[in-house]
Automatic annotation (TrEMBL):
Keyword Hydrolase among UniProt keywords: yes
Protein name: Fatty acid amide hydrolase
Source taxon at top rank: Eukaryota
Amidase domain location: 158-579
Protein's GO biological process: N-acylethanolamine metabolic process
Keyword terms: Hydrolase
Pfam families tied to this protein: Amidase
Gene3D superfamilies registered for this protein in UniProt: Amidase signature (AS) domain
Amino acid sequence: MGNKRVMIPASEVDLTAVNYIPENIQAPHLTGFWFKFFVKLAEAPGIGSLIMNHLKKENKIDEMLKYTVIPEVPMFKPEYPPQEPEPAVVSLEEDAKPEERVNLALKCLPEYDPASNWSGDSTASFRYWKIRDYAYAYRSKFTTPSMARHFYVIEEFNNKNPTAPLLISFDPDEVRKQAAASTQRFEQGNPLSILDGIFMAIKDDIDCYPHPSKGATTWMHEVREVKKDAVSVSRLRSCGAILVGKANMHELGLGTTGNNANYGTTRNPHDPDRYTGGSSSGPAAIVASGLCSAAVGTDGGGSVRIPSSLCGVVGLKSTYGRTDMTGSLCDDGTVEIIGPIATTVEDTILVYAAILGSSPAERISLRPSVPCIPNFPSQESSQSLEALHLGKYTEWFNDVLSTDISDNCENVLSRLSEKHGCKTVEIVIPELHEMRVAHIVSIGSESLCSLNPDCYEGRGARLTYDTRTNLAFFRSFTAADYVAAQRLRRRLMYFHMEIFKKVDVIVTPTTGMTAPRIPPSALKVGETDLHVSGDLMRFIITANLLGFPAVTVPVGYDNQGLPIGMQLIGRPWCEASILRLAAAIEETCAEPKKKPLQYYDILKGN
């Protein structure tokens, strides 16, 4: 047998014998000169392979992929058994017009009177303006989309020194044209939907014509022309949304901090000396700063949820295949989705209703259930909360850098029990190390496959140093490694589907740390810090590798005033359940929100 390890079938694993093993990443933290020197070595023939093989050995990746017999057959895309229908929901027809879905979603929201907030006490505790507030202000002629201050504030923000742009492609004239058209529709009494006149940003790896899609590189637009909107963007446009431009991001989505040495690193609105998280750094920051009501990002390894959590907003990753990825740079992977970021759960629901809808190919291969949203006004809505069983793996839940994170999330669970009757159930999740390995091999191999045709003629050398480091690591994976990772995917899917027979939602902190500080030397050349990445991604990758829906909702702040998010992972296709629970947390269980240091009141101009 030698060093070979043989796994027993997943169905025979004794869960009572599972021990939680904290992550122990072996990798250097590098920036500045030594980082550039390391990248030169990592890309060099011979020595580069030795370095990457050493890293894989130290982190037990080869042990898992090359020297382990995995009995399960590969699962190259998430596959799910049929699911029980969700209670107290309204179905949204995928083939309906996006504006029709949005208008139906609007009817399902809780009762709300924007007039009372518009004329209320301005000294009251901080709150973000909702989409319904903007719609009320437009209808009441308090303001118009053309009168909004977005144009001036975004230009001012992008011209700051040091550079920390929210948008890396912004055409004020194009935005004014959209705003003028929306204003005219309101004057004629014919807004397209509740999203008409609502300012939104699009991550730079999603097509939004006429802007280029660079993926925050300096060259992607040279090899890939944008001729039309991505499917999700066209759906938002048909609802009347005003698309302000392409939001900054971690280059090619291959990072968790949001660092970008090409255009400047977007800063966290709660503390400009800290990262936003990534890779959807610009989308989360522009929403948290009040400049946009919502944004759209991609999530292949927490890229919507991590920055949403660190910036104190809501981010939804839907079930794999729920949204059509056509027109994004990552439209051929098996872990990515396009998802909304917004300041409230209800605004997240409205944007989600607009962009949802599987591609024709995925309707055949994935057989998605009919998309649903929670019907809050129904009498069954509160009863369905009482029936929820929440799965908590305590040792994993508590594996965070600061107890402020786990304590805040634990308090939310207690309040959910007290106020809504939700029951917390202790669970065990086996093979979390295997989960991390399978995810990095899957997303790394798929990213490399997508990029290889475009990295010739010296373009690869024009990528940032941290992207080049990641790609050098990904090149060390073999075809056999990729197949082994898909065997692990099937195995891990079995464990989780068994867990979902006992619970409705798995609850975790969203991240294992709050927003990390930006090393000054990292602004110029970037950095590699896999310890930070591990802390940020600790609870994230389950939903990506296995395709489950997940949402992060703000629940409080640490002792430095930095936002803490809580993650809710749902059964396949059950977005309504996690959104209902997120709304309950937001309404009755979370701490009051604090005003970010960088916040702009666009409606009232404060």
